[in-house]
Specification:
The protein is built from 6 helices and 2 strands. It is mostly helical. The protein has a two-stranded antiparallel ribbon. Strand 1 and strand 2 form a beta hairpin. The longest helix is centred in the middle third of the chain and has 26 residues.
């Protein structure tokens, strides 16, 4: 009876394969971000940097799990880090497309009702690379949007792998 309730369209994958897929995706995304920065000359904003940390966590957790140290726990960590990455990417993409305002230190929300000294200080505190601009996009989706979308694959790989074990 239990087999009749289990969806058959999602093939179960083992812990090792789930960790390999999640680690490979994060390695590719982090490597791509570094290539855009150091080879392409595309400087990251502070939210872009924040999005890199969950991928580093996925890579480390996948490596530890593939070494045989608590692979189930490492799959949960990849799931959590992938979820954080998807959340940060969605949040950043929403800022880029104007759905909501970003952090004050990352966007150009200047208060023009003060004196010139206040405005000058706000301009000096605004970073050169702003979080509310789309510096690169593909098919209408920014790098943050792609990060959010592809991070869903990390979540799926971890969940499908956890389902089997």
């Amino acid at each position: 009876m239990a087999n009749q309730l289990t969806p058959t369209f999602i093939p179960p994958i083992g812990k090792r394969l789930g960790l390999s897929i999640a680690g490979g995706i994060s390695t590719t995304l982090l490597g791509g971000a570094l290539l855009f920065q150091y080879v392409g000359g595309l400087e990251p904003c502070s939210l872009c940097i924040w999005q890199r940390w969950p991928h580093l966590a996925v890579i480390v957790a996948a490596f530890i799990g593939l070494r045989g140290v608590m692979p189930r726990c490492m799959l949960w960590l990849t799931f959590i880090a992938g979820s954080i990455s998807a959340g940060l990417g969605s949040y950043h993409a929403g800022i880029e497309y104007g759905f909501w305002a970003g952090p004050a230190g990352c966007t150009a929300n200047l208060a023009l009702d003060g004196d010139i000294k206040t405005l000058t200080q706000q301009l000096l505190n605004t970073p050169l690379v702003r979080c509310d601009e789309v510096p690169w996009s593909l098919f209408g989706l920014s790098m943050a949007g792609w990060n959010a979308l592809i991070s869903l694959d990390i979540i799926a790989a971890a969940l499908i792998s956890l389902r089997r074990s």
